[in-house]
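Hi support team,

I submitted a single chain yesterday and got back a structure, but I'm not sure I'm reading the token output correctly. Could someone confirm the output below corresponds to the sequence I sent? I've pasted both exactly as they appear in my results page.

Thanks,
R.
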Amino acid sequence: MFRGPQPLSTVLAELMARRGFARIQGTAALEAAWAEAAGEFVAGHSRAAAVRRGKLEVLVASSTLAQELTFRKPELLESLRKSLPDERIGDLRFRVGPVQ
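Hi R., thanks for writing in. Yes, this is the structure output for that exact sequence:
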């Protein structure tokens, strides 16, 4: 069905949504914010996976690191909330899994 001329911004927004470009940009921003909040060493041994229902799931290389990050949860949440206010991250979940 032909809808007539559309503003370029509308066409580009639809294209980005269909191709998943917005999700890719969101993931990159999430990973950058996690690296900044966690620090160089921890960021090298962990990976921000996804935000689901206000909870950021972070994959970590070991259960020891998961426990350490649990102790640092308040400071990590504060930093993430400052970096990504639109994500509304309310909690962190650490799970041992593939980091690379």
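A quick pointer for reading it: Residues 3 and 11 are 12 Å apart (CA to CA). Let us know if anything else looks off.

Best,
Support desk
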